[in-house]
Amino acid sequence: MSGADDLVRLRVGGLNPYSVPLVGAPWAGYLAGNLAAIDASLHVRVWREHEIGVLVDGVALDDADRTGVLARPAVLAGLGAFADLRAGSWQLDLRGGWSPTLRPGSVAGGFSLFAAIGWGWAR
C-alpha cells in the first residue's frame, strides 16, 4: 500500500467483521498502510449450540498517530470475551473487551462492545 491515502488504507479497530479486529479500539480507530495482525479465540460450547469464550487481538501498524512520519511501528493488543447464542435459525453474537495498550489522546477508547443479530435461511 505504498502511497495509499485514507480512502484505501486498512481500517483497524473494533470487533466487527468489516475491519481488522482490535479489542478496545473504536471501529476504524486506526488507518494503516502496513500492518501485521493476529486474532485468536478459545470457544467453549456450554449448551447445545451456545458458545462462550475469550479472545485476544494483536496488531503492529505503521504511523499510529497519523503524523506522516514513519517511526517505529505501534504494537497494540486487546483482551475480550464473547457469547454466540443460537435458537433455531436465529443467532445473537455479543463481544466485548478492553485494550491495555491504547495510549491516552491517540484514539478514544479502551473498551469496546459489539452486538449482531442474524437469521439463517435454512437449517
Helix and strand topology:
Blueprint: E1 10-12, E2 30-32, E3 35-47, E4 50-61, E5 74-87, E6 90-98, E7 111-119
Antiparallel strand pairs: 1-2, 3-4, 4-5, 5-6, 6-7
Folded structure, characterized:
- Strands 3-4-5-6-7 form a five-stranded antiparallel sheet, with no helix packed on it. Strands 1-2 form a two-stranded antiparallel ribbon.
- A hairpin with a 2-residue loop joins strand 3 and strand 4.
- With 123 residues, it is mostly beta strands.
- The model has no long low-confidence stretch (mean pLDDT 84).
- The radius of gyration is 16 Å and the shape is elongated.
- It has no helices and seven strands.
Average of per-residue pLDDT values: 84
N-C termini distance = 41 Å
- Give me the strand/helix succession: EEEEEEE
Overall, the morphology is elongated
Low-confidence residue ranges: none
Main β sheet profile = 5 strands, antiparallel
Q: Identify the strand order in the major beta sheet.
A: 3-4-5-6-7
Q: Per DSSP, what share of the residues sits in E-state strands of 2 or more residues?
A: over 45%
Based on CA atoms alone, the radius of gyration comes out at 16 Å
| Portion of residues within helices | under 10%
Structural class: mainly beta
* DSSP summary, beta strand count: 7
Number of helices: 0
